[in-house]
Amino acid sequence: MSSLKSAAPLQIDLRYSPRLAGLMLLAHGGALALLPPLALPVWEMLLLAGVILASLTYTLNTHALLRDKRAILRLIWDCNDDWKLHTAGGQEIVARLLPGSYVHPLLVVLNFELDRADTGIRTPLWGRRRSVVLAPDSSDTMTLRRLRARLNIFSPKK
User: Fold this and answer.
1) Does residue 38 come out as left (phi exceeding 0), alpha (psi in the -120 to 50 range) or beta?
2) Is the same domain home to 88 and 131?
3) Is residue 115, in this structure, part of any structural domain at all?
């Protein structure tokens, strides 16, 4: 079996994903539909609805529509097992892939821990973590296939 050191860097350019946007709308819409049966006071239901809608706005702009300046537009996995994440705001972030990532033909979720130098020393732990959600239409088919194969062979160590 070959090693990651002999593999060429893998570059994944992300694009708008209608399938991922639909999944996010379905999930958040389902959460909103479950509010009325909870029999909460009106002000609590409105507060929860506001939180759900804020979450929908954030996740759509960051993961599906790629409009937010924090949205990751390009991933580069080089032969040293280093990841570089390029954001819509023009920032390049060095990251490490975490073991909790999920790989399936219909959905890939990559969880990263960002390098401290890129995030700032005083950033809390949750601020140094980023996720990239990839649906089958998030990039070209061959690149996603190579990514899934490479992740299955060279999964991150715990």
Assistant:
1) alpha
2) yes
3) yes
Full-model pTM: 0.85
Question: Could you report the per-residue pLDDT of 135-145, keeping only the tens digit for each?
Answer: 999 999 999 99
Domain shared by 82 and 129, yes or no: yes
CA angle 121, 124, 127 (to 5 degrees): 100
Residue 7, beta-bridge partner list: none
Task: Give me the sign of the Cα torsion angle 60, 62, 64, 66.
Answer: positive
Give the whole-angstrom CA distance, residue 82 versus residue 127. 19
Q: Which domain holds residue 51?
A: 18-64
Helix (H, G, I), strand (E, B) or coil at 70: coil
53 within a domain of the structure (yes/no): yes
CA distance linking residue 84 with residue 114, whole number of Å: 10
What is the tally of structural domains in the chain?
Answer: 2
